[in-house]
Amino acid sequence: MSTRPHLLPALATAFAHDGTLDLASCRRLFAHVADLDVEAHFVAGTTGEFVALSDDERIAVLEAAVEEIGTAHVFAHVGAASTHQAVTLAHRARDVGATRFAAVTPYYTDVPGDALLDYYVRLRDVLDGDDELFAYVFPARTGVDVDPERLADVVVAAGLDGVKVSVPGTRYVADLVASLPDDVPVYSGNDALLPEVLDAGGAGVVSGVMQVDPAPFLRQAQALRAGDRAAALAARADVDPLVAAVGPSLRATKQRLVDAGLFRTAVVRVPAARHPRPAPVAPAVAQV
């Protein structure tokens, strides 16, 4: 098991009451998390509602993140339904200072034959040789289900630097890690399963929940780095209730950011159920 787990908060995108982009609130969140002891921040991804942003809005959000957090600690998500759009976004994101990139697989239509490889090869080609590029797979949302062995072949052939996986459990992570070179990191979107992700050979987790209360996630990661698995598992008393309360609802995540004075509204653009406002989690008494 790795003792150097990476944490990557997946940051939300703020909107005003009328649904327009609230870049000032985005900047407030970015500045707030900039000094966290994490590998990087995942920006304009699924939690960032990238599918509901125009290309200009995505670039504005990415530029703000680079300015507030720093280029070394931002993963700019540039994935799109078409290779043309993803390549254009990657080129523009480089122009505003991004050097670390992730791209979800194309979505909505099937991805036949070598199309997936071509997608990532063309993205790799538009980036500088020192830039990082991660594949991002999320079959439940994209409709593109890539088996681990095929994905590993694409990663190696396209010269990608890693993979972010949003698949339940850790079996996919383990199978993918077994198929990849040892120096290619795999991140999981299962933010409540950091110890298990490491057991499966993964490098860490991308967490949409962590932005609302980083402390228990940081405490768990620090325990794992110190080799104290008991303390890492004990941190679940705080991590699990938070993930259960906030994780299923982007609106609940944003409400927590409103409560913290970071966002002005909990408005979401993607279709979302209106959940009741979650009760505060008291870490000292929370039960799993």
Automatic annotation (TrEMBL):
Coiled coil: none
Pfam families, per the entry: DHDPS
Annotated SUPFAM superfamilies: Aldolase
Protein name per Swiss-Prot or TrEMBL: Dihydrodipicolinate synthase/N-acetylneuraminate lyase
Molecular function per GO: lyase activity
Family as reported in the entry's similarity comment: Belongs to the DapA family.
Domain of life where this protein originates: Bacteria
Matches recorded under InterPro entries: Aldolase_TIM (IPR013785), DapA-like (IPR002220)
Alphabetical list of PANTHER family matching this protein: 4-HYDROXY-2-OXOGLUTARATE ALDOLASE, MITOCHONDRIAL (PTHR12128:SF66), DIHYDRODIPICOLINATE SYNTHASE (PTHR12128)
CDD domains in UniProt: DHDPS-like
Keyword entries, A-Z: Lyase
